[in-house]
Amino acid sequence: MRKQDNDLLTKTDAGTPMGDLIRQYWIPAVKSEDLENDAPPTRLRLLGENLIAFRTTSGKVGIFEHHCPHRCASLYYGRNEDEGIRCVYHGWKFDVSGQCVETPTESADSNMKDQVRATAYQTRERGGLIWVYMGSAEQAPELPAFEANALPEGMRWVKCGLRECNWLQALEGDIDTAHLSFLHLGALDAEQFPPGSPAHYFQKDKAPKFEVLDTDYGTMYGAYRPGDEGQMYWRIAHFLMPFWTMPPGGPLQNNIIARAWVPVDDEHTMFWHLSAPIPDRPPIQLADNKGKGLVGIHFNLEANQYHDNDWLGRYRYKENESNDYGIDREVQREDSYSGIDGVHMQDQAITESMGKIVDRTKEHLASSDKMIIMTRRRLMQSAQALSEENTIPAGVSNPEIYNGQRAGEMIIPQDADWLEKYQEICQESVNKETVDASKK
Ligand code: FES
Ligand SMILES: [Fe+2]
Questions:
Q1: Ligand 1 center to residue 91 CA distance, Å?
Q2: How far is CA 19 from CA 10, 49, 72, 278, in A?
Q3: pLDDT at 281
Q4: Is residue 278 a contact partner of residue 270, using CB atoms and an 8 Å limit?
Q5: CA–CA separation, 430 vs 262, rounded Å?
Q6: C-alpha 295 to ligand 2 mean position (Å)
Q7: Considering only CA atoms, which residue is closest to atom 1 of ligand 1?
C-alpha cells in the first residue's frame, strides 16, 4: 500500500476524506446508563474532537464541542442545571440544541444570547445507546436498523472498550477469520472437539478458502472448509459502512450481533459491541472434557476496565502495553496459544502491537487477506467519491440496506449455492419484528 492510501484510510479529523465520510453517519457515543439526569458532564473525544456529553433534568442529551462560545473556557467544568449547561466562567447558559439562553454578564435588555450558539451535535437514543450525528446535513439521516440495536432491555449487551490504536486496524481484526485457529484456539487440536462440531472443522483445516463480495452495504465473506462427508462448513461475516462489523460467533440462525469501531482520534478507537448476551464461558464443547487448551477462551469484554476523567478516560483496560497485557508465558507454553487471558484481550494486544497506526507499506498481504483488501478498497472509493464528486455513501440515506443481514456459521451440502443458502437462512431467521421495532 502507498503511504498516501494509508493516510487516506486512517486519518479522521474534520476535513479529511475519511473523517468527512464517517461524519455522514450516526455514531455510537455513550451508553445511556452513563448519563444521569443533571449529573456533571462527561468528557468525550470522537473523531479527534473534544466534546462534552450531559443529560438534562428532563432526560434530554446534549453533546457539545467543549469550548464555550463566549471566550472558550471548557464547558466540562460547567453546571448542568435546569435544562441546560452553564459555563462557570461568566455564567452563560446553553440548552441541548446549543442555543445560548442566558448571558447574565450582559444588561437585561441585551439580545446577545440570541446570536450565540455552542457547537452542538444532534443526538438520538435507542437500545441503551446514545448516538451522535457529527455531519453537516441539517436533517440528520435515519438511525441504522441493526437487529442488535433493537433488542429489549434484559436481552441485550451494550458494551464498549477503548482500544489504543487506529480504528481501521482494530476493525480489520474482526473481519480476519484466519486468526481464529491460531491467536484464540491455537492450543487445541481438531480431535479435542466432538466430530460434527464447528470447532472440529476449523481446527482441522486452518487455511480456509474464501469467497469475498462487494455488497450494497459494504463487503462480506464466506470462508469454507470441508465438513463431514458431502458437507461444507461455512463462516460468514460482514463489514458494513462505515465502521461496523458482524462477526460469525455462532449459527446464523441466532447470532444477533453488530460491532462498531469508532475513531476516538487517529490513535484510539472506541469498540462497541451490541448483541444478545453471550455466556461468560467457553463457547465450545470439548470431546475429552479435560479443558486443556481452553484457558483464556472467554468473552468478558469488560474485565478489568477503569475510568478516569481525561479525554481518553472512558472504558480503559488495566491490562495494556505497559504490562504486556498480563501475558503468562507458562500458560502460553502449556495451555494457551497466546498466554493472554480472554478472546477480547488477545485481539486488543495483537492489534495494538501493530503500532498506533499500522504502517501498511510494510505488509505482505496473502490470500487469507482478501476480505481486508476488498474492505479497504471500498472505504477508499467511498471517501474519494464523497470528497471529489459529493457522492453520498451507502447506508446514509438508505439505512434499510443493513436490514436482514446476519453473520454466523452454516453447514450445507458441498454442492449447494452458499449465497442462496445464506439468504434463505437469513430470511427465515431475522426477526422482522425486531427490525421494524428498531425504526421507531
Ligand atoms: S467563557 Fe463561558 S461564559 Fe465566558
Ligand atoms: Fe479475534
A1: 7
A2: 9, 11, 24, 33
A3: 54
A4: no
A5: 26
A6: 15
A7: 71
What is this structure's pTM? 0.94
Q: Which helix (H) or strand (E) holds 274?
A: strand 268-275
- The model's pLDDT over 102-119, given as tens digits with 9 standing for 90+, comes to 999 999 999 999 999 999
Which-ligand-closest: CA of 69?
Answer: 1
Element (H, E) at 21: helix 17-22
Q: Which three cell numbers stand for residue 80?
A: 448542568
pLDDT tens-digit readout, 162-186: 999 999 999 999 999 889 889 998 8
Rounded mean pLDDT, 264-282: 86
Among 86, 89, 102, 110, which is best to mutate for testing ligand 1, by the most ligand atoms less than 8 A from CB? 89
Q: Kindly list the structural domains of the chain, giving each domain's residue range(s) and its CATH number in brackets, ordered by start.
A: 26-140 (2.102.10.10), 157-437 (3.90.380.10)
Q: Which residues lie closer than 8 Å to 108 by C-beta, 6 or more apart? A: none
Q: Residue 408 phi/psi, 5° resolution?
A: 155, -170
Nearest to 345 by CA among 386, 297, 378, 409: 297
Residue 206: count of CB within 10 angstroms of its CB: 15
Q: Tell me the CA–centroid distance for residue 275 and ligand 2, in Å.
A: 16
Between 402 and 282, name the one with better pLDDT: 402
The answer to whether the CB of 70 is under 6 A from ligand 1 is yes
